[in-house]
Amino acid sequence: MSDAVSFTRDGEIGVITVANPPVNALSQPVRAGLKDAVQAGLADAGVKAMVLICDGATFIAGADIREFGKPLAAPSLVPVIDAMEASDKPIVAAIHGTALGGGLEVALGCHYRVAVPGARVGLPEVNLGLLPGAGGTQRLPRLVGVEKALDFIVQGTHVPAAEARRLGLLDELIEGDLKTGAIAFARRVLAENRGVKRASALPVAPVAADFFANYEAGIARRLRGFKAPFNIIKAVQAAAELPFAAGMKREAELFQDLMTSSESRAQRHVFFAEREVAKIPGLPKDTAQREINTAAVIGAGTMGGGIAMNFANAGIPVTLLEINREALDRGIAVIRKNYEATASKGRLTTADVEKRMGLITPSTAYDDIKQADVVIEAVFENMDIKKEVFRTLDSVAKPGAILATNTSTLNVDEIASATKRPQDVIGMHFFSPANVMRLLENVRGKQTANDVIATVMNLSRRIGKIGVLVGVCDGFVGNRMLHQRTREAMFLVEEGARPEQIDKVLYDFGFPMGPFAMADMAGLDVGYKVREERRKAGKIEPRESLWIDKIVEMGRHGQKTNAGIYRYADGRTPLPDPEIERLIAQCARDAGIAQRQISDQEILERCLYPMINEGAKILEEGIAARALDIDIIWINGYGFPAYRGGPMFWADEIGLKTVCEAYRKYAGQFGDTYWKPAPLLEKLAREGKGFYDL
What we know:
By secondary structure, the protein is an alpha/beta fold.
C-alpha cells in the first residue's frame, strides 16, 4: 500500500483512508493505494464491509493536475474503480468537502455513498473541454436518470449534498462525525443484508425517442463552439442505449476525441492560466499585505453601484459616496433592484438581500469615508474630474488607505500625481456590469508600492474577481487591443463590408456579439465621448472614420434610443437600416474610398490580427508580463471564446508566421501605417516560435 492510502479495521469494517494533501488528488500513489487497500479488505476474512474516507479538508477533489497532458502511470482510474465496484463486500464512500471529477467517479464505483450536509459533489470536466472518463457518464444516469445526469455533467456545477441526496446520488446525510456515522451506516448495511449495490448493474430509466436531439437543440446556441457538452450528450446517450461495457467503451472513445481536440487544449490552457495569473513575476510571495476590512466607492452610477455590490457580496462593509443626493438615491435603488431580481430567481433569500443592502452605506460626505481601508473612484472618464477627486481623497483618506481608480484608459500615474502618496495609488479597472463580470484589470503605477499590489490582487479574489496585473499605457491591455479591432472594423465598413456582416463573422468565431451590436448595446455616445477626449488630448489617428460620429450626432445612441448603427423595432433585436447604409456610402465617397465586396476571411484577419500584433507590443513593453495575462483579460473581460484559449494562445495555434504573412499582404494594399508587424511578432515568427515560448 502507498503512503497516500492506509487500511485499518474497526471491528468488521475495513477503513480505507486517503491522505494526499492538499486536496487528496488522484495521483498514481493514490490510485495504486486504493487498489491495494480494496484487495487487502477482500483478503481479510474478518472484514465484512469497507468505508472509504479522506483525511484533511476534503474528499478526493479530482485528478492530480500535475499529471495533465502526460501519460498516466499504472494503474489508470477505470480498472481501480471497476475493482472497487466488483467487490463482493459493500464499500461505502464517506464524503466531506468536495467530491469532484474522478473523486466523484470513485464514489460512484462504491456501493453506497454518505456525506456530511456541507459537502458538495460534481463532475466539472466540461470546464476543461473534457467529459468524465472513468464511468461518470455511465454510472450517474443509472442513479439519477438521464436528464438530471445530463444537467449535472453538461453544467459542470457543484451540487450541495442535500440536493445530491434528493436526486438519489447519496444514500444518507451524516450529522456529526463522518467516520463514526459512515461506519455505523456500513454496519446497518450488513445487519439489513442489503448486499452490494453496483451502479453499473442498474437499468437506465427510458426517455422519449427525441429526448437527446431536443436536449442538444436546447443548449446549441448557449454552448456553440464548445465540443465537450455535445460529446457528453453522446456519452450519456450510450448509457441509455447500450450495455454498460459498450457504454464505457463509447465513453472512452469520446473522451479521447476531446483530449486531442483544439477546444479542450484551449480550455485546459485557460484553466491553468487563470491560476497562474495571480502569481506576479518579481513580486515576492511573502510580500506583506494591508488589512482590508472596509471599503468606499466614489460615484453611485451603474459602475460605482456594481463595484459596491462586489464588496457587499463578499461581506465587506462599503460606503457609496455621491455628492448629488438624487443620484445617490437612484444608485441605491438600482442596487436593491438588482439584488431583488437575483432573489426572484431563487439565487438569494430575502434575508440575503437585506443583509447585503445593510453592508452598503449611502453618503454625500467625504468625511464618511475617512476610515475606509480602500477607496475606489468610479466617476466620469475625464482626467480633470478624476484628479480633483484624488486631491480630495489625499486630504481625507487615512494614512495607508489604498486609493484606486476605475479608469479604463487614463494614465494612472497622472492621476496619482494629484496626491502626495502615489505609492498608495493603483488602477482597479472593473468591467460592466461590475457585479457580474469576472475580470479586474489591476494597473500598477510607476510608484505603486508592492504591498498595495499584493493586497489588491488578493482583494480581487476575495470579491470574486480574476485579478490581472498590468502596467500603465493608453487603454492598458484590454482596451488598447480593442482599439485596434474597432479601428479596422470601422475601416472595413467604409470600404464596403456591412456592419451585420462583420458582426456575424466575429459572432461565428465565438464572440458573444459582434463589435457593432456591442457598441449599440453599450451606447454609441460613450465611445463618442472617449474619441472626443482623445482628440482633445492630441491623439489623432492618421485615418479617421467619421461615419460612426455622424450617427451619434443624428441622436442615434444605440439600443437606448432604439436606433444606432442598427435600428431596434423591439428595443433589442438589431436590424440593418437603409438610412445608415446611405450615410456610410456618402462618408466613403467624401473620403475618396471606393467600396468593394469584402470576404469573411479578410474581416476575420483584419479584426483579429491587429489585436495579436498589439499584444506583441504590450509584451515587448512589459505592460503585460506574460501572454497568459493577455489571454485571461480577453476571455473574462471581452468575450474572447474560451475554447480558442485567448488571442495569444490562438495566435500560437494558427502560427505567428501566418499572422506576419497577412501583415505583409495588407501592407501592400494599405501601406504600413497600420500594417507594420511588431518586432517581437516578426522575431518569433522567423524563429518558428510562439508567444508561449517566451
